[in-house]
């Protein structure tokens, strides 16, 4: 065996046997905790992280809190006090090793929210912040025998109200419908206490890991970075933070960027028991790196960064030998960890009393209630059989063999399935398993379907089927597994070692990628496996020997050196990150200067010459306030120098990029129920919708690392906010210090992610100072509070650690008069003023389809209109008795308006012909039809509102008085099946808005608008190159049919056909014609019988794919048009092969095509506002067409959600339905 191989195994051996005193980590969260409510009437077992709300749901004590009125039925859970307790053995070998360290910390990754932490009867922490991590020294409190940790969490709503009442002066808080508590006094997601798009659960729980960390040498505790570009050079500053044990330490700190051959080594002397920081600076020529670019502008290139600390005197070598957790029996051959762990197994009993074996895993979540030492498998099985409560045992053989008896929590009606080694399932009724959830529960009552779901899901070993939900489980791995000579994950992890996919990882030593293979042939693998066992036994002998490591006897010099080197490697600590080289500038220039920067040479932009564009602020782009305070007509100034205001746009790597995106809210009422897969699915939706930025709204929670990792790798920029929203906050010293720690932790964590392009201090708090009587009547007090928190605290932290990071104190905001390293002078004023900063726009009393009602703002970071979820999603969380428009449930799930139906209907009446009444109490069939129409109209109205607004702001990028350079609509996603502003509902189904946004955010987009008597065509080009674009303008009749001859004539006679170049990063008006003249090109056409259709296509480069954009324009409100029956048809269903991007002819009943099903949608007459419906979870490649012409059938692909195990063409065909406005238009025009 090669020496390097032996060194690697030595490192693994030292860590696996707990052989180093340098560092010890013991996970407490993976052990079995007891959770109880305040009066102890409820008690359950769980692992952490966990929330009582979910534990109670899993055990059947409560129903799904999201179903019907579950929010109210489970409110008592949030109002109770909950405690989590754990007893762990301080005498175990691992704990003895931990306690031998110079320093021991209890680390709590996240608690929600007001928690007292007790260790052995002493309070060690009083936590009060969801958004931060906690660390407490506990070495002196740990004892031999039983140690008890208790985390008691008080109800957040009650605590927040107490703090509000105790504050020396009244601070108002926004109280949404159905909300609880005073969210401004509790550092937890504000939306947890209720918002206008979601429920109020105010849940308590533990959402982070909890562990004990012991160390005798300094260890890396964190790091952060900043970068700036000066000339052609990037300056990268990396700050490494070391946790120092009592007595100090010394060693070498190495920071490197391997791909660039850059390394900084520092000898560090640490003489205090606190965190020490060290700075490494690198200068990198921009020409030597691939830049990180957002989606559509280049590759999001990333570079690995390694930070490693190696102590001068490793603790494991100082004592002369390494401690061992289990002593070998004299004269016995050493048993390798691999041998022992491979034999570990879990067995489950079934009704016949036999045991079903599941090897290589453990069940700490099932309560271990009895333990014994035995090396007899038969004895362990017999003991379980004779113990009434035993349902599982875990058996580990070897010299320190053990048998642990376990029982699972009871749950009437539940079926617990265990996937055995042979692939079959053992089923037990009446029990469940808390925690270990793998993905989101699947809706099914079928045992067979649940088994199939588990079998097809990676890492699934068990499931619980209860109340129509199949929840997959991934138990804790219990052993290393040896397969084909490769050591693979199983995680019987001890100390600081873990085995990860692709290689071993051990503190500062890692081998990647591809793992450590033991030969290439079966014979070689067998020989290497034998050699490995022999070598591991040699390692054990070295570990157990009394020979000091510092001596070098001739006969074992090599071994001693190897062990010493392994000791040093094990004592070192290492962090790994990635960086992307990029610049992000938030450009705020006077308008004249911004126009020069944004407009291509020779282009002056376009202007609206009619009365359109006027809004409430009188800022219409034709009129502007000059610097002398005089309103004047802006075209009088040819160079735009008289226009009041300043730009607000982002330049990435020097390129001004139009930001297209949406606002993200929490994905679930409990953060522990959000999976990595769910995050990726949501972010994929953003990419598929052509977005390049998402805004993390300040009323929720900071993103987890999985989201940042995705945005980094896929070029999706992040507008990041600290978690404050919609009301003034306190500014007492304790509150400010708490916030400072929170923001520092979060800014440091986010600093490594190039996708984070801007930080904002809050959401809407600047504007909120005008909402409340308290702040309106005492402006100086609340302005002082605002500055103390968002400028003096938050801004200063961000600017200190991220000096080049773009920062806005509030969103929206008028920005600052002075904002530099010396001072910040805020421009106070109405935050909706479109002349400065970003704007949030909501005007529910205005006509949302009239673009003139929207402000010519520089950047729109929020706007929107409501709709309900897709009906398929809504139906999952309600009952058929709820499906009536005037039912209480309809209002209960709309938290924005007390008179929600009235507000929505006012908008609807402007554009749709509605029924005389939405009520049909004596006709269930009619009531259901009306309800479906109501849902359809909310969806289509929402999509049309966003289309009017976004298209307007997209073309305003090149209008001097507009210079709009970004739209982030409200909102990306849902937290529950409620009415909201989202395009992607709680179950991941796309609303019609989502399809409309995908078209509006295209990099090449055509728009047809009616501006007074004119019809105008605009082209928007987001590419960095000019696009030669072919444009076809047609006048189509609502009486057109699918007759082939008629279609041929129409294709040959467009109203206009031309090619025009569109400048890069620009919007241009390319064609205009009086509307009456345009209609006259088609005989018999009027505004109520015909519509305008425009198609544009072009390539950004000769090698690029052709892009096509369409726009349809109706010339009167749709309510004034009598629509024909389009006779929609669905046909030609065929499976889409996983390896293909297009459908291939195949048997329609084929099941080997889970990638999707392709079909054709066509009509016999024009279909207006089409909508496809299926209960099968997934999305369509396109939908929600403004007008589907009978001569232009559409080929559409349905992509099933990952939870859909298989989908045939026949299944989709049987479930799919198509509808249009014709199906939901009531009465006749003019009635």
TrEMBL record:
EC number in record: 3.2.1.25
Alphabetical list of InterPro entries matching this protein: Apple, Beta-gal/glucu_dom_sf, Beta-mannosidase-like_N2, Beta-mannosidase_GH2, Beta-mannosidase_Ig, Galactose-bd-like_sf, GH, Ig-like_fold
Catalysed transformations (reactions): Hydrolysis of terminal, non-reducing beta-D-mannose residues in beta-D-mannosides
Signal sequence extent: 1-22
Pfam families tied to this protein: Glyco_hydro_2_N2, Ig_mannosidase, PAN_1, PAN_4
Domain Apple, first and last residues per copy: 350-432
Region feature (Disordered): 319-340, 1134-1158
Domain of life: Eukaryota
Keywords for this protein: Disulfide bond, Glycoprotein, Glycosidase, Hydrolase, Repeat, Signal
PANTHER family: BETA-MANNOSIDASE (PTHR43730)
Protein name listed in UniProt: beta-mannosidase
Organism: Tetradesmus obliquus (Green alga)
